């Protein structure tokens, strides 16, 4: 009899232990597998929830940013509307103020007790006197200033007030001083300059003593070929140089006319000096040349603007009277005899 046959119980016990151990291992493996699968499921669910939460947060942030942009746009629209309303309100207020001023001006003009026509005459006289002064100072327009002074005198003559007597006398003196000027200084100087420019081509090109003295026969024979001149004579005789000098002289004359037109005394005198320097280089010494240079000296010394000490005195006195509160009395024919003597502020 063998050992296996003699000991059957221990072998069965070993097999049962083995099966129990295998079963336990299987149960543990199944439990681990289920735990790992559950953990993976929970992890995937958590990741899905986190991703969904991130998407919701991004959408929420985008919506908040959209709401902020809309809010800024609405705020800008409100500010623009407020500015437009403020501008419209200012314009309405300005229109109201202008309407009130117009009503006040119309009421002042239509009210005979204030006698607004005389105040308007004073305004017109002041404007005419200012225009006359500007014409003389800026453009040297003596004729225009005379007309403006004549209109101002006619305007002041329509105001019957003894307090304007001194003003009218000063205006008469100023008009007499302007009438004594004759033509405008610029016009007279322009005429003299044109007369001088017209005499230039007629200046003799040979010295006067050379034409007066008889020349020797050999000089008369060689005259078509050779022109004999003293060495001290600096007159330009070469045709190209002479043509260039005459062109330069015409340019200087144009510059003198332009300076005279704009009232530039320094430029006018400088142009005349350059003209005077060109004359002895283009023409020899002769009485007409000396006379022309004397004319240039006379033109250089003449003023371009009228020098009147009384110029603007009428305008200054009128402004002083108005700033001192000059009031024009209403003529007696305008109001009734029982009414008091009103006064008007112009």
UniProtKB/TrEMBL annotation:
Residue stretches spanning the membrane? 16-33
> What are the coiled-coil residue ranges?
36-91
Q: Which UniProt keywords apply?
A: Coiled coil, Membrane, Methyltransferase, Transferase, Transmembrane, Transmembrane helix
What's any GO biological process attached to this entry? Answer: methylation
Which InterPro entries does the annotation name? HemX (IPR007470)
Q: From the Swiss-Prot or TrEMBL record, what is one GO molecular function term?
A: methyltransferase activity
Presence of the UniProt keyword Transferase in the record: yes
Q: Which domain of life is it from?
A: Bacteria
Q: Does the keyword Transmembrane apply?
A: yes
Write one Pfam family the protein is assigned to: HemX
Protein's name in the database: Uroporphyrin-3 C-methyltransferase
Natural source organism: Pseudoxanthomonas wuyuanensis
């Amino acid at each position: 009899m063998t050992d296996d046959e003699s000991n059957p119980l221990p072998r069965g016990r070993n097999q049962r232990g083995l099966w129990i151990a295998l079963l336990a291992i299987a149960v543990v493996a199944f439990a681990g597998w289920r735990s790992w699968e559950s953990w993976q499921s929970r992890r995937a669910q958590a990741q899905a929830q986190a991703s969904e939460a991130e998407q919701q947060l991004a959408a929420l942030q985008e919506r908040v940013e959209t709401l902020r942009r809309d809010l800024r746009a609405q705020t800008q629209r409100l500010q623009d509307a407020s500015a437009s309303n403020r501008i419209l309100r200012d314009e309405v207020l300005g229109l109201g103020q202008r309407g009130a001023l117009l009503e006040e001006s119309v009421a002042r003009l239509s009210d005979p007790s204030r006698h607004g026509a005389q105040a308007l005459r004073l305004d017109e006289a002041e404007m005419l006197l200012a225009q006359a002064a500007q014409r003389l100072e800026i453009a040297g327009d003596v004729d225009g200033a005379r007309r403006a002074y004549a209109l101002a005198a006619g305007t002041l003559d329509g105001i019957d007030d003894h307090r304007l007597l001194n003003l009218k006398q000063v205006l008469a003196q100023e008009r007499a001083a302007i009438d004594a000027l004759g033509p405008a200084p610029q016009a007279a100087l322009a005429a003299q300059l044109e007369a001088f420019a017209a005499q230039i081509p007629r200046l003799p090109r040979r010295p006067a003593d050379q034409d007066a003295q008889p020349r020797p026969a050999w000089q008369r024979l060689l005259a078509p070929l050779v022109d004999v001149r003293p060495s001290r004579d600096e007159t330009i005789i070469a045709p190209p140089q002479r043509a260039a000098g005459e062109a330069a002289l015409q340019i200087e004359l144009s510059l003198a006319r332009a300076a005279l037109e704009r009232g530039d005394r320094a430029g006018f005198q400088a142009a005349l000096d350059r003209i005077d320097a060109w004359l002895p280089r283009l023409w020899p010494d002769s009485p007409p040349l000396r006379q022309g240079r004397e004319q240039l000296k006379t033109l250089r010394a003449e003023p371009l603007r009228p020098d009147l000490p009384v110029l603007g005195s009428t305008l200054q006195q009128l402004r002083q009277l108005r700033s001192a509160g000059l009031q024009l009395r209403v003529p007696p024919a305008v109001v009734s005899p029982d009414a008091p003597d009103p006064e008007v502020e112009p």
